Amino acid sequence: MANKAAEAIDFGKTGGVVPVVTVDHASRRVLMVAWMNREAFEETVATGRACYFSRSRNRLWRKGEESGNFQVVREIRLDCDEDTLVLAVEQSGDGAACHLGYESCFFRTLDGDEWRAADTRKVDPAKYGPGYGHQKK
Amino acid sequence: MANKAAEAIDFGKTGGVVPVVTVDHASRRVLMVAWMNREAFEETVATGRACYFSRSRNRLWRKGEESGNFQVVREIRLDCDEDTLVLAVEQSGDGAACHLGYESCFFRTLDGDEWRAADTRKVDPAKYGPGYGHQKK
Fold first, then answer.
1. ipTM of the assembly?
2. Is residue B137 domain-resident?
3. CA atoms of B119 and A56, how far apart (whole Å)
4. Disulfide check for B79: which of A15, A23, A133, B84 has CB 3.0–4.6 Å away?
5. How many domains does chain B have?
6. pLDDT (tens digit, 9 = 90+) per residue, A10-20?
7. Which residue numbers of B have CB closer than 8 Å to A's CBs?
8. Any idea what DSSP says for residue A9?
9. Is residue A86 part of a domain?
10. What is the domain range of residue A102?
11. Has this prediction a pTM greater than 0.90?
C-alpha cells in the first residue's frame, strides 16, 4: 500500500505521527483531531476509510471498528509545513465522531471561565458495549 | 491573566502544549493548526487575539505580530479528551493565515499519489519583509 505522497509528510517531528484534523465534508465542521503514522496514512488512502494511529493503544485505529461509525474519506489536504493533515469525510453510522456520542468531539465552548456543553448528543454510546470509549484515543 | 478554564486543559500529554485548530468563523474552513501552552491560552482569552506557542522558536507567538494578519477570536471549543482546542476566528489583514500567503495552510490536496496546490495565493508574503515565514512555526 506504499504511496509516494507519504514521502512528503514529515512524520519525524512528533515521534512518527502527525496530527490529523477531520472535518465533515458537507458542513466543514471540525469533528475530531487524531494522529496518523505512515502506515495509517497509507491504509486510509488505499481503503478510502479513515484509519488513525492510537497513541494510547499503540496500534492502528480503524475508526468505527467498534461502533460502526466509520468515515468515508472525500479529500485529504496537507499543510505548508508538511506535518499536519486535514481529512474531509462523510461520517457514517450514527453520525457521531465523538466517543461520548456527540457529532463532534468539540461539543464544549468557553463561556467566561467555564466550559459548557453547547451541543446535544446524537447517540448514547452505551449502545456500543460497556467497554466502548473508556480508553482515550 | 489566570483563567480557571485553563485548569481543565490537559497540557501534560504533549510536553506542555496542546494542538489548536483554527477555523474561519464564517466559513468554518480550517485555516491552520498550531500549539498553545497555558500562557498562550490565557493571553488569547484575555486579549481576544490568537496567541500560540511556537515550538521551533520556543516562545509565545502573537499571530500577526510581523504581518498584521492577526486573528480576532470569536469562539473557543475544547474536545472530549480535554487535550485539543478549536478557535473560530476572524482573520484580519490580508486574509492569509498561511505564512506562504494562502488563506489556509491546507492549500494542497492529494491527487493520486501527488500533492497539488488547489488554492490561489491571497498575498505575496515577500511584502512582510525578507525574513518573514522562513522559520517554521
1. 0.92
2. no
3. 36
4. B84
5. 1
6. 999 888 999 99
7. 3-5, 8, 14, 19, 21, 23, 27-30, 32-33, 45, 75-81, 84, 86, 98-100, 102, 105-110, 112-115, 118, 136-137
8. S
9. yes
10. 2-125
11. yes
